[in-house]
Amino acid sequence: MTTTSKATNAGVSTATGIEFQKHCALYILFENYGKLAGKKYFICIEHHDDVMFCHQGPLDELTSVESYQAKKSSDKWGMSDTFFDILTKMAKVGLQLEEDPISKSPNYFHSLEFLTNHSINLNLKQTKPKPTVSILINEANTNVKFIHLPQEIQDEINKKIKEKVDPETKPLAHIDHISLAFIDLPKKYSSQLNQLIGFFKSSVNKDIADASAAVNTLIELFRKVETTLNNGNISKLMDQSKRVTSSEIENAISIINNNQKAYDFWREEGKEIAKKLSIPIFEQQSMQQSIQDSFDFFKDLKQAEHRKVLKFTQDNIALFHLATDEVECIEELHKKFLNKNSTPLSEKHLKAAIVAAYIETRESL
Questions:
Q1: Residue range 324-332: mean pLDDT, rounded
Q2: Predicted TM-score of the model (pTM)
Q3: Out of 45, 83, 355, 365, which could bridge 226 as a Cys pair, Cβ 3.0 to 4.6 Å?
């Protein structure tokens, strides 16, 4: 049964001030980028939980969900009522995921992770002569499953959660799915961004010239779904508007990578291309941006003319095998396109599209 919750959209109204969840989502994405390549998944922000990585099978059925309650803090976490409230909410999220009507594989499972950039120091004083029981989760001990906590602390958390969900006991079945984790993100927003920029370069594209722009592009993808209200305050994983899909992420990264290739290619060959295609001096400075814009247009179904240029280039891939010089190949593509096609694109934008289509087609060989 799907339940309505006033808290479902609670984060949306203050979305402009909440960036930590998106930064956590990017951190997890970059950390697992190699494993996720070629896999089908989608990411949700502020939907059931703060961040969710939902993995899919060949028929789009859910195979697993990694659900994250992501909280930044200026103080360390302990055995407090606030902490117990968060764990109670996570147990309820587990129940919501179990009851979500989306199609699931027979072996479906989910995990519930409390993620924070401050240490978690759980201390439980006992009646003497029993010693105090404690466990510390930090950069040296980054992830501990609930079932691996000291038994006394497990019992105390179970008791506190049971008090908060009584008489509803179904969420208790999901406590064992919970884990507590430390994420190595700084406290300041700007420092988090700087770390993500470095992480993108080391994990996704070490040759990227403008990793800052790349990270901001991906953050915007998450911001789009974060600020989309859940319909009727009900979270459902079938809601397409709350997803950032693996194909969207791959398309964004493909455009980012192609922009880098365009930057390098124009820097090395731009003067020669400008001569061959008769690009005036006053247009040459803005040509690189027009080339980069073309990569976006190739992905946009509404940009029929740019997509026509890309298809034409792909259909004439034989030229790539015959030509011995890249600039001459681009010149030949441009001439051949004009001989066989008419287009409302300006001369500048057509030439930029031809160069971009050449780069994209060359990279697919």
A1: 96
A2: 0.81
A3: 45
Please give the single-letter amino acid code of residue 336: K
Q: May I ask the CATH class of domain 6-237?
A: alpha beta
Q: Which two tokens stand for residue 154?
A: 């497990």
Closest CA to 352 of 280, 254, 286: 286
Q: Is 263 exposed, middle or buried (0-12, 13-18, 19+ CB in 10 A)?
A: middle
Beta strands in 236-323 (DSSP E): 243-245
Q: Name residue 39's beta-bridge partners.
A: none
* Two tokens, residue 131: 């010693």
Please count the other Cβ atoms lying within 10 Å of the Cβ belonging to residue 137.
23
Using only C-alpha atoms, what is the Rg of the chain? 26
Tokens 């969710």: give the residue.
Answer: 52
Instruction: Give one DSSP letter per residue of 264-281, joined into a string.
Output: HHHHHHHHHHHHHTT--H
Euclidean distance between CA atoms 88 and 6, whole angstroms? 16
Q: Which residues contact 117 (CB under 8 A, 6 or more apart)?
A: 20, 72, 73, 182, 183, 184, 185, 186, 187
d(CA 68, CA 142): 15
Identify the pLDDT of residue 11: 37
pLDDT at 341: 94
Residue 122's H or E segment, with its range, is strand 120-124
Q: What is the pLDDT of residues 263-302, one digit of tens each?
A: 889 999 999 999 999 999 999 989 989 999 999 999 899 9
Q: Give tens-digit pLDDT for 60-100.
A: 999 999 999 999 888 899 999 999 999 999 999 999 999 98
Strand partners, 64: 55, 109
Query: Which alpha helices (H) appear in 1-59, and where do they start and end?
Result: 20-31, 33-36
185-206 burial code (b ≥16 CB/10 A, e <16)? beeeeeebbebbbebbbeebbe
Q: Residue 358's pLDDT is what?
A: 97
User: Residue 56: is its pLDDT beyond 80?
Assistant: yes
Cβ atoms of 62 and 259 within 8 Å: the answer is no
| 146, 159, 236 from 171: Cα distances, Å | 14, 13, 18
Domain borders along the chain are 6-237, 255-364
